[in-house]
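SAMPLE LOG
Freezer: B-3
Tube label: C17
Construct: single chain, 169 aa
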Amino acid sequence: MSSIIVYTTTAELDQLCIPSAIYAETLAHNTNAIISYFESNPQVMLQFSGFNSALKQANQLNYDRKCGCFYTIPWNTQYNVVNSVPKTILNFSQQVELYQYMIANWNGNPPTSYMRYLSVIALGILLNIKRAKYNIDNGLCVCKSPLTTITFQNNYQFILYLKENNIKL
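STRUCTURE (predicted):
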């Protein structure tokens, strides 16, 4: 059974959406541990891209005075762990509220949005991967590994990493 998140403040909603596997690291702003997690779990990293797109689209629909759909968060959230539910769902108004909170609290002003913090890290890693793939596709040297915690001996190993993890950019 899925569950729509029940919360009292938007800051609480922001915390409840954090992946449970990196909850403590996120609250402590342990960027290196989060990067390591995303690089070893690239599907979660890719899901953050879709998450941001869904929230942005919900905000645009709200601006256009239209209604949107529910969004099922694809990773195991802290809300799942605390409430023992298999899936977490954000309704349309929660998506809009969370997106606006993330935008308003993205630049380090207290309180910082944890979901925005995670999204910036995930999207930064994806940008590095995309840049490295572009360089390889165009015969340019990738002198430094595009990932922080995983080292590739050559371009072929990097391409295998992309294929094994179904990363298509």
